[in-house]
Amino acid sequence: MASLSPLINELVEALTILPGVGPKSAQRLALHLLEKDQSGAHRLVGMLSKALDEVGHCKKCRNLTEKEYCPICDDAKRTDEQLCVVETPAEVLAIEQTGFKGRYFVLFGRLSPIDGIGPEKLGLDQLKQQVVENGVKEVILATNPTVEGQATSQYIQQMLQGSNVLITRIAHGVPLGGELEYVDGGTLAHALAGRKAFD
Amino acid sequence: MASLSPLINELVEALTILPGVGPKSAQRLALHLLEKDQSGAHRLVGMLSKALDEVGHCKKCRNLTEKEYCPICDDAKRTDEQLCVVETPAEVLAIEQTGFKGRYFVLFGRLSPIDGIGPEKLGLDQLKQQVVENGVKEVILATNPTVEGQATSQYIQQMLQGSNVLITRIAHGVPLGGELEYVDGGTLAHALAGRKAFD
Q1: How far B19 CA lies from chain A's nearest CA (Å)?
Q2: Which end of chain B is more exposed for a tag (fewer CB within 10 A), N or C?
């Protein structure tokens, strides 16, 4: 946009790194921050730079936190017996909504040799140590149902064989409210293969 | 969210000042900034704090810029004869898309006695001075078609009476592609009253 000043243009461009924000919305955000809510913008700058400086990984589950341990690992009321393995922090939040009361382990990715992501990057040694040391009875594999996600789960399952823990995988099938007609073939095949006795 | 660390929660809250960003999207943005694009996040902090420090108002049209004059006022190729009065910088960008090649004057608001916004806050003295000094031949009033926007236009029209400039108002009517059936009564009344000979 030649009609915006260079510095504002640069701000617009910096805002397009946000997911779901294209050039047009970035423009709207930039003008809002500079024109309508400067105090909010100052606060955002402060919080974001503080968070970038201080937030690291939980020593136990690897989730994002500015403390040594995240609030979930710190919560004595939760059970150590179930450990749910997910790929990202956002997935922890998603599973939290189900009322799950166990612990988590966040991989921050999935095995992907082509991108140079091997077991060490996902902290799988640390995962194994957690399972052995913390009295985990069930490891719930909740990686995404993609090729790499499935491969990651398989790898973890093999790694933990012999550790005397139950290893489970979350169910894949037709989503509630989903109509069979609109469900893709792969999901439907999973749903059929995973059928259970009607009770 | 008890499952997010306090600092991340504060960042989420700071992000909800963005227009169109609710708690859920703010969470997604926060995790994206901290987890997936830290370099982009650092860049955003830098640009936003720089813009907050340096961006002020163009001396001529009051639009946002970090320089003395904005790129539009600085552009010698544009005509001084037409001056378009708008409420916000975003509206400058909207009108730029029509190919308008005149100048602008940005009010940064509209007359609203109840909010304590009078003529001096909108820089109307400065507007008058521009009109007189810069050889403006036509002032195009493009304030929004709200009660305050209309009142603001009316005020400006009265203020400029006797300055020997043509004062026009952008047309209001049925939008292109709009179906009469779905257009509100006020707009339709405007469209009827503003009818023109068919040529």
Answers
A1: 7
A2: C
Q: Contact B85/B141 with Cβ under 8 angstroms?
A: yes
This model of the complex carries an ipTM of: 0.83
**Contacts across the A-B interface (CB distance below 8 Å):** 167
Q: Does B64 contact A19 at a Cβ distance shorter than 8 Å?
A: no
Question: Tens of pLDDT along A152-167?
Answer: 999 999 999 988 899 9
Could you report the per-residue pLDDT of A74-129, keeping only the tens digit for each?
999 999 999 999 999 999 999 998 999 999 999 999 999 898 999 999 999 999 99
Minimal-distance CA residue of chain B relative to A100: B3
Q: Do B8 and A51 touch (CB under 8 A)?
A: yes
A1 vs B contacts (CB less than 8 Å): 93, 96
B134: number of CA atoms within 13 Å, CB side?
23
pLDDT at A1: 52
User: In this complex, which of B1, B38, B93 lies closest to A27 when CB atoms are compared?
Assistant: B93
Contact B71 A31 (CB under 8 A): no
Establish if A86 belongs to a structural domain. yes
**Which residues, other chains included, contact B47 with Cβ-Cβ below 8 Å and sequence gap of 6+?**
A7, A10, A11, A13, A14
For residue range A19-64, list pLDDT tens digits in order.
999 999 999 999 999 999 999 999 999 999 999 999 999 999 999 9
Tell me if B41 is assigned to some domain.
no
Domain count, chain B: 1
Helices A6-15, A23-31: inter-axial angle, 10-degree rounding: 120
CATH number of the domain that B90 lies in? 3.40.1360.10
Determine whether the interchain pair B66/A7 forms a contact, defined as Cβ–Cβ distance below 8 Å: yes
Identify the pLDDT of residue B195: 83
Q: Between chains, do B96 and A43 touch, taking CB under 8 Å as contact?
A: no
Contact B15 A44 (CB under 8 A): yes
Range of the domain at B149: 81-169
Residue B192 lies in a domain: no
Percent of chain A exceeding pLDDT 90 equals 73
The two three-digit tokens of residue B152, written as one number: 């603001």
